[in-house]
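tool=predict chain=A
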Amino acid sequence: SFNLMPAVLWEYGLKSALQQMTQSSSIPVKFVYRQEQFTHPLPLDIRLCTYRVIQEALNNAMKHAQTDRIDVTV
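tool=predict ok
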């Protein structure tokens, strides 16, 4: 149940949660987060949705892409 709503997402925000996710990947991930693009803090439901979409995309890339590196840009 911990991964349903990661504590790091609540406590430290989307960037930290995504950094943690990409750092724990079995394939090296280049992670870029462009905070300056956001003029207001994102609502929690948008942060959670974004986290889940990137999580699923990362999992799919690891399963099916047959690659040695993944790039994630937000």
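Strands lie at 29-32, 70-73. Residues 45 and 51 are 10 Å apart (CA to CA).
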